[in-house]
Design brief:
The complex is a heterodimer of chains A (about 350) and B (about 350).
Chain A lengths: L4 H12 L5 E6 L12 H13 L3 E6 L1 H17 L6 H20 L5 E2 L4 E6 L2 E6 L16 H4 L2 E2 L7 H10 L21 H9 L5 E5 L5 E5 L23 E6 L4 E5 L1 H4 L1 E13 L9 E5 L7 E6 L2 E8 L7 E6 L2 E11 L2
Parallel strand pairs in A: 1-2, 3-6, 7-10
Antiparallel strand pairs in A: 4-5, 7-8, 9-10, 11-14, 11-16, 12-13, 12-15, 13-14, 15-16
Helix pairs in contact in A: 1-6, 3-4
Chain B lengths: L1 H4 L11 H21 L6 E4 L2 H11 L6 E4 L4 H14 L3 E4 L9 H7 L4 E4 L13 H10 L4 E6 L9 H4 L5 E5 L10 E5 L25 H20 L1 H19 L3 E3 L10 E6 L4 H10 L19 H5 L4 H4 L2 E5 L6 H20 L2
The chains are: A alpha+beta (about 350), B alpha/beta (about 350).
Amino acid sequence: MSGGVDSSVAASMLVEQGHEVTGVTLKLWGGPSDSGCCSVADVEDARHVAAQLAIDHHVFNMGEEFEEHVVAPYVAAHAAGHTPNPCVECNRHLKFDALLEVSRRLGFEALATGHHAQVVRHDGVTELRRGADGAKDQSYVLSMLEQEQLSEILLPIGSMTKTDVRDHASARGLRTSNKAESQDTCFIESSGGRRRFLAERSTLHQGAIIEQATGRVVGSIDDLELVTVGQRQRLGVDENGERRVAVKIDIGRRAVLVASPADSLISEVAIDLGTTTATTGSLEDREAVLVQFRSHGEAVAGTLQGDRVILDTPINPVASGQTAAFYDPADPARVLGSALVRS
Amino acid sequence: MAEATAGLVPNPSGAHRYARATRAVLEEARERIAAVLGVNSREIVLTSGGTESCNLALLGSPKPTMVAISAVEHAAVRAGAERAARVHGVPFVVLPVTTDGLVDVDQAIAMITTGALVSVMAANNETGVLQPLDALVAAAEASGRTMTLHVDAIASAPTKDTAAISSGAAMISVAAQKLGGPVGTGVLVVRSGLSLDPMITGGGQEGGRRAGTEDVAGAVGLACALEEARAEQIAGAPLVMRGRRDRLESLLLDAVAGSSVTAQRSERLDGHAHLTFEGIRSEELLVLLDREGIAASAGAACASGAPQASHVLLAMGVDPQRARGALRMTLATTTTDDDVARAAAAVIRSIEALTAQR
């Protein structure tokens, strides 16, 4: 229970379904933050909702695990020119690994969260599917879950729209019914942003802006480690008046390679096979996929070939470190698995 | 409390007979508080609780040459001391403790300068370890260093005679809530001769040291709680409690491999049982104990309520992993042998459940 409306309603749904429910809030981050799963006020909200639902509530301190598995790798990945997704890593290592283990030790039968995604069980197999509310779907950040985890989790609000969720909360007078959503990385303050956070924990370098086609240096940027492949801001405009697009971060050369929007399009994406996960079975025999590279991006058609995803239609470049979430072309709401994008 | 203040007007500061009646109740309570604490009633400053008392002592004192506190002080002292040092632009010094949880008196004296404001608790709220206050005061005198000593006697007040163990202190903090009295009432003893600037200014109440209309009912509650605790101490209740505490600890030590009592060699508060368990996380143990209706504590929690490795244990050199498996249970005079047996059984059962599934 993060202190937001989604997990509040998830708990409420379970209580109404007759489960014996205990609320847990994870204390993940001790540093400054705006909101998310980290502030004292959010914990108070979660605790009060638990009281309204007449369920027990506990706060678990997983700050050390969060630092080790989410924050430190986030900083290291940026320093290496990648763009990691900390929400994916938090789900992978904290919520559905460390917390799931605690939940088992404490004798609980299932772990539920307020994610907008659905788990569907049939014939002894648990499928992961997109949430009913297309605009809020969070199956992307859960795409790394495998049978072992999926079989033990519940996603009670996955079949609801956000409007349904808020209506449920306000009908029951839950404190969080009209609370604003947290959108950004929970451990980064909006005031200073990624820049200040990374500058405090690593060294940001100036980088040359180099045209990929010609090798010509066309400018420079103060904070190379903050540039994301696909970015169009702060890289200037080319001779044709088009915004330059970052296509590669070369930390070794202290350079960002740029191209015109048309030249930047890619028709294949490399994935790190060591990071591949599958919701059921394996991805090895799978060829046709739908693949999504951003939390709320669009899934596009492609083919898995070894450590590459060949795309049917070219797309804007994808940053290394992002997650590729695979969906079933024959059943587009069904998650097949995931892998991290490599450069 | 209700009886003593029934029918009184709330504000004791008016010029009319009704206010005078309220004032009389307040001042009588003040005298009773002073009597238990062995001080003069003019030395009593009533506050909103332990945190305010500690803050007022540290922030209201005249500019010192340094602010020094023990490494195991409560956050109310630590934060107040850090702020006082910052406000006055003087050094903030942390006095180390030994592995037994005791302030190292020799080291402390070597670190303190004349004119220092020093805050050392009478007993630690987590481990229950009693600090060598008399030795510290004597050593400071012997070395010719004059210091202003504030003693946080909040944890010790229920089972120890505050007057006796804080005799060398210039200021003493006590909270009613720890004594079974009302939450939101505390006292700061300020020995005569010591000037104190108020943190809260206004009508000049409490001898100009703490403005605001006095909480008369709270003062009466504090007086009653102090008197009751003192009477229990004289009657020997803490010794009985200690026997039960020792029983609780030995039941756990015998049944749980890798368990140890914190600072077992030190003199500790009679009602405090503090143990660490190898390979156990406090927060998980607390969930299971909560299910069984046992109200225990990990000893330390951050503002969100999440247990964290205790600064007290870390200062004592306890391994950080081990510190994550701390459990503090406190007994009251009302705790029975059955309660102890039930608590021990619940802890043992919970630890078995947590380790069985590894």
